[in-house]
Design goal:
4 helices, alpha+beta
Length: about 200
């Protein structure tokens, strides 16, 4: 019996060993397969698009606009004036002056500005010149402030003007012909990206 017991014991060891290694075929268990990974792609760099603004060209555009504006005054051409003003009824669109016997007047909105010039043209006329002394343009090339000295017939003084881009064209948004003597009607730009000239001390 003893040799039989040893024989059975050896068979049991062999069977146990085969069971333990029995799954050793060509297919590997999922957990033991070598995982093939694709190296992670580097994240796309964040690209900051910078606006390349030709400030010299923008300044030239503002000067050309004021050339048209001055000529329209000399010609009493209301149709041209309508085109150079920003067409909006917002109160930020206005003109302020003292052309009525020195009395301060402010006209808000594009329609009121146009009507006011029609009335003034019935009373006053003459060639207009604007000597531009200062231009400031913001970093987006969308807003600007202009200062200068104007002469129109027998009227002379300082003007401050706000301009705004309308599409690709500059338009006049506001003009204060009193030079700021009746409050700061037109505000200067904070930290302009481009300037011509300097603001004279008031």
């Amino acid at each position: 019996m003893r040799p039989k017991a040893i024989y059975y014991f050896i068979i049991m060891l062999l069977v146990t060993g085969m069971i333990a290694c029995g799954g050793d075929d060509d297919s590997e268990p999922a957990e033991t397969k070598t995982a093939t990974t694709t190296p992670s792609q580097p994240a796309e760099p964040t690209v900051t698009v910078e606006r390349n603004i030709d400030f010299a060209a923008e300044e030239d555009g503002i000067r050309e606009l004021y050339g048209v504006y001055a000529k329209a005054h000399g010609d009493k051409d209301v149709d041209t004036l309508e085109k150079v003003w920003l067409k909006s009824e917002d109160k930020s669109v206005f003109t302020a002056w003292t052309f009525w016997a020195g009395t301060f007047e402010r006209n808000d909105g594009w329609k009121a500005v146009t009507a006011a010039w029609e009335g003034i043209f019935r009373l006053r006329g003459g060639a207009m010149t604007v000597d531009i002394t200062y231009i400031a343009i913001d970093s987006r090339g969308k807003e600007a402030v202009l200062r200068g000295k104007y002469s129109w017939g027998n009227q002379r003084g300082d003007l401050i003007s706000a301009l705004q881009k309308d599409g690709s064209d500059w338009k006049i948004r506001a003009i204060d012909y009193t030079g700021g003597k009746h409050g700061k009607q037109v505000k200067d730009l904070n930290e302009p990206a481009h300037t011509f000239g300097e603001i004279a001390e008031e």
